[in-house]
Amino acid sequence: MLVNRQKTVHPLLTLQPQELTITSDIIRQTYPGKDIVFRIIAIKEPRRSLVVAFLEAERSSASLPHVPRCTYVSYQFKGQPEAFEDIADLGTRKVIFHKELPKGVHPPAGTDDMLAVQQLVLEDELVKAEIARLKIPEGAKVVPEAWPYGKDTSEADPKQYQVWFFLGSLDQKNRAHPSSNHFVHPLDFSAVVDDVTKKVVKIDRLPMGDGLYSQSGDDEVYQPQPDAEYASELQPSLRQDVKPIIISQPEGVSFTVEDDQVISWQKWKFHMDFNWREGVVLRDVCYDGRPVFYRLALAEMTVPYADPRPPFHRKSAYDLGEGGVGNTANNLALGCDCLGAIRYFDRWVNDSQGRPEIRENCICMHEVDAGVGWKHTNYRNMRAEVTRSRELVIQTIMTISNYEYILIWTFDTAAAIHYEIRATGIMSVVPMRQGVEHDIDYGIMVAPGVMAPSHQHIFCLRMDPAIDGCNSSTIAYNESIAKPVTKNRNPYGVAYGLESHEIHKSGHLDLDPSRNRIVKFVNKEKVNKVTGKNPGYAVHVSATQLQLSHATSTHASRAEFADHHFYFTKQSEHELYPAGDYPWQSVGGGGVRTWAGRNEKLGSEGVAWVNFGFTHNPRPEDWPVMPCEVFRVAIKPSHFFERNPALDMPASRQSVNKSTLVPKGNAKEVSCCGQKGD
Fold this sequence. Notes:
Belongs to the copper/topaquinone oxidase family. The structure is a single chain. By secondary structure, the protein is mainly beta. The chain has 3 domains: 2-100, Roll (Nuclear Transport Factor 2, Chain: A), CATH 3.10.450; 111-234, Nuclear Transport Factor 2, Chain: A (Roll), CATH 3.10.450.40; 258-433 and 441-638, Copper amine oxidase, catalytic domain (Beta-galactosidase, Chain A, domain 5, Distorted Sandwich), CATH 2.70.98. Strands 11, 12, 13, 14, 15, 16, 26, 29, 32 and 33 form a 10-stranded antiparallel sheet that branches. The chain has a 9-stranded antiparallel sheet with strand order 19-20-21-22-34-31-30-27-28, with no helix packed on it.
């Protein structure tokens, strides 16, 4: 079926407000009289073959084929534990798929759920009894923090929340500040709340010593800790020698944003989508008219904690699916408002007084000067040729209760794509008895009575290649191998060679720095005229430490992606999330490890899952707020061009850069734009 170009909705367009309304109306009409609690409404990923046909027709200005526009819905009936998922066709306005989720499979929670739980626990008699036991100073404010409940058995549990408790500052000035840090005052108990009844079902006393079962006793009271504030207004003093750095683009930006969320910058062109779970999704990524990737997204993350003492052994902030773009605790979900402080995307702007404030549900996109792009000086005549590298930055920030993740897609002028993660915010801490030496090697004391456990942040990128076309991209890996010493080929023992191995079937692969192992996406039907090699893009990622939780642990069974650097599976629009569709209290078995185990032939339908991250062994310098920890993945062209694609960048000019040479022996203060006061 062909449709009119002017009337069709682009299949890569983000969910529109009217489509959300239509979807909710369809479900409500299906269940008249029911009080429906919607958990997820999102665009159902369209079939790739249909989208590829649409894109090819669009590029050739041919008639556009019809791609059904469908939405995915997850919902419950208020007060009932059962959960359902439907697929609605927006064209026919009918439900075309329906199922009830199995017992123990839970949809994510939203902001309203988390805020409601945090309010109700303070009125619960069990919680009030714990607060009374602690003999907290009068006027102090107890601050609850709801996390998804940590799974530690294979049983099908009801959906629950684990609520941790903190105390606001006892100092009147600090307490009045909007950024006062309550995380420095953890209390010694936690509450477990049932999702359906919204009742506290049990109190967990927290361990206060290094023993597995060193939980606080009935006679223990609150031991005050000193404040540790991060807000600039609450610091004893601030540096006075920080001069402004002002970056401007007087002629405006070099990128454009079209109505269908198509971004054009330099020779790059792509669709920028965002959804509740993955955040920013890049689709139909092309360079100079040549397709490179069909789909790129951060698909999952896990933050397993190393504290073995119950109930902390359940603590694992992971999986982008428990709540969306940011759900802490057991599963982090990139995409949706889960905890009270989580936002889809943040962007700094200035308020009327010139102070930074946050705009919710925004994507920050800007250009940056990235330093020298390429340079060479002819030493015979000292003539230098140099260009500046420029980058297009697409940035989102997730606030996940105590932590912040700054997630950045970057395009550069040398035809490379980068994915950068910056971790900052406040470490998740637990209480410990004061005045006692604690024998622990899974964390450090950051303040009297406050311990920061060791943990990991492991991320997973899903890469769906389209090297010069979606139907001819295959996956391989290269290794740099030392050649044996031979009389005729390598008599001096200096030779090494590059070996390439195609990934034929689904499975996994670990990086090996000793072999410089690099995964590549290549087009086997084309050849670089200069090198004779297949054109492609290579993934340059450090071989970071994988998940340290034992293979028998629930951390390992749930975070199916975190035990190998790469997984390879056959492309499927139904398999987008490597820890499974519903990670909240899941036991695993429905994610990328399972899919890769099918031993399916990949051919031109292979998808790569790239896993990397940080092992965060806390240090005092991370307290009370952590300096950004930065990790970057580079996706670089390899035999895709016949020469440096950035040769046509304009030369760097002093008329623009305006750098200033400080005269020898002249201590007068200068700036990049001339002398002070110019």
